[in-house]
Automatic annotation (TrEMBL):
Domain Long Rib intervals: 162-254, 271-342, 372-460, 475-563, 579-667, 683-770
Protein name: Putative Ig domain-containing protein
GO molecular function, a single term: calcium ion binding
Residues in coiled coil: none
Chief location category: membrane
GO cellular component, as recorded: cell-cell junction; membrane
Subcellular locations according to the entry: Membrane
Domain of life per record: Bacteria
């Protein structure tokens, strides 16, 4: 009875234990799989090349890895490498830090290995003992299955195990900062790691586009800050990833760079209202997509036009300062501001400036006073005065106490004012133009309030002063202006060596040589230069045309020096487009054609350091000005009447040499002679050529003893005596010879058939001497010794350049499939044992009964 109960208890306990084992096996299967992924650094990966077993029976079903422990419990373990999975991972046994194993063909029974012989011979199909460091990987082939050190497989280099992969970058705007996360490292088994199993990799940038400003930190995070000047498109950064074992991978990351959005410049308050005699400064703020942003360091600001002399802009900060004088012109002025960075537009905006009259405070006693002058007429070389009239509340009165008078800033020297009485005195000499003038006298009150009192003065001509305006001499001081800025210079007038005001009635206009970036005030003659960044930084000389009262026109030179702006682009040679207009000239006459230079589609003057020279194809009847590039043709009566195309050689500031074509059509002069065929003397120079080599000889044509170009309609052809190894250019007559090694060594005389314009033909002889080719020296001079055939220790299949071994693809086995359902093989075995015990118990009961 006791035995029966013990059996029942034992069966129950055993069944419970087996059920727990089964459940734990199913629940922990996924955890073990995850642990295997995280344990790459503690494992050794063994890959087997099953293609190397082709034609070797069932060897592919019997590939095993056997490992053992050299200390402690001396445990052993074996795993079969399936031809589907193609690899296994093994860890150190016990407390050991390395893995000891072999790879073999055979079986594993219990704790014993059964190693088969190699196919078709008696040698065991196994590797020699391998001691591996965790984190390493081995590729094993059938050729490694020899029990000797010579065939022992070697651990793979880190760059053969891992592939660093970066995310694909999104679009990055010019001027913006963008960071790319650190790369992942994908192992041969397809496991994605944050770093290689055997240590941290090092990163460095080995190539980088200028202006991309790429950096990489120790974690592999790539950061770029592309300049505003960088070209749009894809820019590649090459990263070198160096592993712990010294091997490395090179990864190229393509960053798509797109145009920066144009920021909006905001000036406030809007509009900017400034009273005469006061100063207001407003700062610029930049917005991008309705958010305030900072402008890049080095941004440059400019006004597209200068509508008023009182309005200035700080080129480095963008601040607008409005400081109108007390007598400044009032009105509303619209400004357009542009901001550039290294020549590229990055922001723009508008501002409105209103200059208002000075307000008179009703609280000030001076506000009630009004001052005026009657019109004054004075003759040249005479003196006249006019007193000031003071009124208070509309009634004439004497001057208030302690007020002072002074001349306004535009008053001429021949006009003075008494500081106490306000009396204006005019004393024009004979050089003051006879015309009307209006000046403003400045009245300063006791409370420091300033008002203006205008005075009109008419200057009449002196009886003896019939001076022609052409007697005046005009000149300009030298003007210096930086690119992207504006500067002006006034004309200076003098008469008989003495400075004078401008005579009335003359007008000023730009000379024909003056470019569009210069303007001339037609009344005052003031010259204003506003060069952009593409105007050459050099000295320029232009002319201003002066039209006098009698209709005569004279010119005045003005010298302007352009200095380079800090952000001006380099005007390299490839930016210029140079051309000549087609020109036609008759024999015995002369014609010239100027060079046309354009920059970004706009006609501009070339920098003066650019030089010009005749091309090699240009004849003696054409000359080229070395400074201006002007081409002059002077054909005589013997130059063929036809179309020609020659080249002019241009040497740029950066040393680059380019050529510019020029087309010239020569027409026949009325008295030009007929250039009949018999007038031409044609000949070839004798030439010598080696077998297997090539040589050319040009035709020489002379007319009246002078070497000249033949008319282009003349044609050339091979004579009947000319062999296949001689060629003739049908247009130029150039002969090219290329004899083979079989051409006889001797002197030859052949003939070229020339067809002239008048239809006549002639034969021109050419002498060619063929000499022996150089001795052949490409074959060995002494017999080569027989080499020793060496069998390689390990036969390897050459890999493609930079190719990675194919990562093994894990394949589900029946056991892993069951694990995903929560049932393991252990659980199935437990259920089977429970069924057996239950059956045995029932049988005993029946037997006992």
């Amino acid at each position: 009875m006791i035995t029966k109960k013990l059996q029942q208890v034992w069966a129950f306990v055993l069944a419970l234990v087996l059920m727990l084992v089964a459940l734990s096996g199913g629940l922990l299967t996924t955890r073990f799989a995850h642990a295997e992924e995280n344990a790459q650094a503690q494992s050794v990966t063994v890959n087997f090349d099953f293609d190397s077993l082709a034609g070797k029976g069932n060897f592919a079903d019997h590939v095993w890895v056997y490992q053992w422990e050299n200390s402690g419990n001396f445990t052993t373990s074996a795993q079969r490498i399936s031809k589907d999975k193609k690899y296994v991972t093994i860890k150190p046994l016990g407390a050991e830090t390395t893995v000891n194993f072999i790879v073999y063909i055979g079986n594993f029974k219990g704790s014993n290995i059964d190693v088969w012989n190699r196919f078709s011979n008696g040698e065991l199909a196994q590797t020699d003992d391998i001691n591996a460091t965790p984190g390493s990987s081995y590729n094993v082939t059938y050729d490694n299955l020899h029990k000797d050190a010579q065939h022992l497989p070697r651990p793979l280099a880190d760059n053969a195990i891992y592939t660093p992969t970066f995310d694909v970058p999104s679009e990055v705007e010019q001027g913006q900062t963008f960071s790319l996360p650190a790369p992942k490292f994908v192992s041969l088994n397809g496991v994605e790691l944050t770093s290689p199993a055997n240590g941290v990799a090092k990163f460095e940038i080995i190539s980088n586009t200028n202006g991309l400003n790429a950096t990489i930190d120790t974690n592999g995070i790539v950061t770029i800050h592309p300049d505003y000047t960088i070209t749009q498109g894809t820019h590649t950064v090459s990263i070198k990833v160096t592993y712990k074992d010294g091997t490395f991978d090179t990864v190229g990351i393509n960053f798509p760079i797109v145009a920066a959005k144009i920021m909006e410049l905001i000036y406030g308050p809007h509009p900017i209202s400034v009273e005469q005699g006061k100063t207001v400064t407003v700062t610029a703020n930049a917005k991008l997509e309705n958010l305030l942003v900072n402008m890049p360091q080095g941004s440059m600001f400019s006004l597209t036009s200068a509508p008023h002399s009182a309005i200035k802009i700080n080129p480095t900060t963008g601040e607008i300062t409005v400081a109108p004088a007390i007598d400044a012109q009032t009105g509303t002025y619209k400004l357009h501001v542009k901001a550039t960075y290294k020549g590229n537009l990055i922001a723009q905006g508008d501002a409105i400036v209103i200059i208002t009259p000075q307000e008179e405070s009703s609280a000030s006693p001076s506000a009630a006073w009004r001052f005026s002058y009657d019109k004054l007429t004075v003759t040249q070389n005479e003196t006249q005065s006019v007193d000031v009239t003071a009124s208070l509340f509309g009634k004439k009165t004497s001057l208030p106490h302690d007020i002072t008078f002074s001349t306004g800033e535009n008053t001429h020297k021949w006009v003075t004012v008494d500081s106490k009485t306000g009396t204006v005195t005019a004393k024009p000499d004979e050089f003051v133009a006879a015309q009307d003038y209006t000046f403003k006298m400045v009245v300063t009150h006791l409370d420091d309030t300033v008002t203006l009192a205008p005075v009109t003065i008419t200057v009449t001509k002196a009886p003896a002063g019939d001076l022609d305006t052409t007697a005046w001499k005009f000149s300009y001081n030298k003007l210096t202006v930086a690119q992207n800025e504006s500067q002006s210079v006034n004309v200076t007038a003098s008469l008989f060596g003495k400075k004078s005001s401008l005579p009335a009635g003359i007008t000023f206009t730009p000379g024909t040589d003056m470019p569009s970036w210069i303007t001339v005030d037609p009344k005052t003659g003031k010259v204003t230069a506003t060069p952009d960044e593409y105007v050459a930084a050099q000295d320029h000389t232009f002319t201003v045309a002066v039209t006098h009262l009698n209709g005569e026109v004279t010119t005045v030179p003005v010298k302007i020096t352009i200095t380079k702006a800090d952000n001006a682009p380099e005007l390299k040679s490839q930016l210029w487009k140079l051309s000549y207009a087609d020109t036609t000239v008759q024999q015995l006459k002369s014609a010239s054609v100027d060079l046309t230079a354009t920059l970004f589609g706009k006609e501009r003057a070339l920098p003066r350091a650019v030089t010009f020279a005749k091309g090699a194809d240009m004849p003696s009847w054409i000359t080229v000005d070395p400074k201006t590039g002007e081409v002059t043709a002077n054909p005589d009566e013997y130059v063929a009447a036809q179309d020609y195309e020659f080249t002019v050689v241009v040497t740029h500031l950066d040393g680059e040499v380019t050529t510019v074509p020029v087309k010239i059509t020569i027409t026949k002069a009325d008295n030009a002679p007929e250039l009949k065929s018999q007038l031409w003397k044609l000949s070839y120079a004798d030439t010598t050529v080696q077998q297997l080599k090539s040589a050319s000889v040009d035709l020489t044509a002379t007319l009246f003893g002078k070497e000249r170009a033949l008319p282009r309609a003349v044609t050339f052809a091979k004579g009947a005596d000319m062999p296949s190894w001689v060629m003739v250019d049908e247009k130029t007559g150039t002969i090219t010879v290329k004899p083979s090694e079989y051409v006889e060594l001797k002197d030859y005389v052949f003939h070229v058939v020339v067809t002239h314009l008048d239809g006549k033909t002639e034969k021109v002889a050419v002498k060619i001497k063929v000499i022996e080719a150089d001795p052949e020296t490409t074959y060995p001079l002494t017999p080569l010794k027989p080499g020793k055939h060496t069998i390689p220790a390990l036969e390897l299949t050459p890999a493609q350049p930079n190719a990675k071994p194919q990562a093994p693809k894990p394949v589900e086995t029946p056991s892993t499939g069951l694990a995903k359902t929560g049932i393991s093989l252990t659980g199935l075995a437990g259920l089977a044992l429970i069924s057996t015990l239950t059956g045995a118990t029932i049988a005993r009961r029946r037997h006992a009964n």
